[in-house]
Design brief:
Layout: H1 5-26, H2 32-58, H3 67-91, H4 96-103, H5 106-117, H6 124-144, H7 147-154, H8 157-162, H9 164-189, H10 195-221, H11 233-256, H12 259-266, H13 269-280, H14 287-302
Helix pairs in contact: 1-11, 1-12, 1-13, 2-10, 2-11, 3-9, 3-10, 4-9, 5-9, 5-12, 6-12, 6-14, 9-10, 9-11, 10-11
Length: 307
């Protein structure tokens, strides 16, 4: 059971890639914030069912919702929503290509910040594996982006370094990093319960918080979204199911292993995304993308070595 976090992370990445593809389709008929919200709204009923199943088959009962657990979970839920909002904001900028690459620095941020301020402990092998995965991700992104896209995105060195896309992308990566680390700490507080029990309860509280607070915000800012839910109920239900399964995979993996390791292995999502784009959206795969995939897989396989 020591390495079960690896298949859990890969499964979560697969579910996330499938969910993202479905959200891409839904985004054609709903706003970006609405498309983001249905992830937690439609996912919550499935998460409740999963929690009930875990309690029935594995036991454990209802945990004690201590201040520390609620606090870390709330901080994770809030930073995740802020990160998503920043990501959406970046979609509107011309420098999106550069921003996309910079957001992937969350892999390294999670390792450095987690080691310095949280309970992360990384071995030498772990650092090497993480760096190889990061290199593979960068190669895949470079293969996806055309040279002229990068030139038009950067414009000049000053814009590349100090432009709004760079600033927003780095802040977005930072917010995602904090969310991973906060969720990891929340799952650890629930010990000595089993990792699955700790993972699903953290997911349940997070999803409930995001559904409530983001729903209240949308009710004030974009109430039209709630009228778009029923006409799109089929794809929304699919997004909810894949989101719930993916979240349970991520959080259960966080309950077992360092957030930085989990997120590094989770970058295999990029491979799934490229495969989905090729199969369903007829997008071509470049040679450098294939090299990036191979490099990433090597890095992921290194996590099988004992740390």
């Amino acid at each position: 059971m020591e390495l079960v976090w690896i298949p859990l992370s890969i499964f979560a990445a697969l579910m996330q890639a499938v969910r993202t593809a479905a959200q891409k389709t839904l985004n054609q008929s709903m706003s970006t914030m609405g498309t983001t919200y249905v992830r937690s709204l439609a996912g919550l009923p499935f998460i409740v069912i999963i929690v009930c199943a875990v309690l029935y088959f594995d036991g454990g009962g209802v945990p004690h919702f201590s201040r520390a657990f609620v606090g870390f979970t709330f901080a994770g839920a809030l930073t995740q929503v802020l990160a998503t909002a920043l990501l959406i904001r970046m979609f509107t900028l011309k420098s999106f290509a550069v921003g996309t690459m910079l957001i992937k620095t969350d892999i390294l941020m999670t390792a450095f910040i987690g080691t310095a301020f949280f309970s992360e402990t990384l071995s030498v092998t772990g650092w090497i594996a993480l760096s190889i995965v990061f290199l593979g991700v960068l190669l895949m992104l470079l293969g996806k982006l055309k040279v002229r896209d990068l030139r038009s995105s950067t414009g000049s060195l000053k814009v590349a370094i100090f432009g709004p896309a760079t600033q927003i992308a780095l802040l977005c990566a930072f917010m995602f990093t904090l969310s991973y680390l906060f969720f990891r700490e929340a799952t650890l507080i629930l010990k000595p319960g089993g990792f699955l029990w700790r993972g699903v309860w953290t997911v349940a509280l997070t999803s409930a918080m995001q559904t409530l607070f983001l729903g209240l915000w949308l009710a004030v800012k974009q109430p039209i979204i709630f009228g778009q839910l029923w006409p799109n109920r089929r794809i929304i239900s699919f997004i909810g199911l894949t989101s719930a399964l993916g979240s349970v995979g991520w959080f259960t993996a966080f309950a077992i292993q360092n957030a930085s390791y989990v997120r590094a292995v989770g970058q295999i999502e990029a491979v799934f995304t490229v495969a989905i784009s090729w199969l369903y959206f007829n997008e071509k795969i470049s040679r450098i993308e294939l090299i990036g995939m191979a490099v990433m897989v090597v890095g992921v396989l290194m996590f099988r070595i004992r740390h």
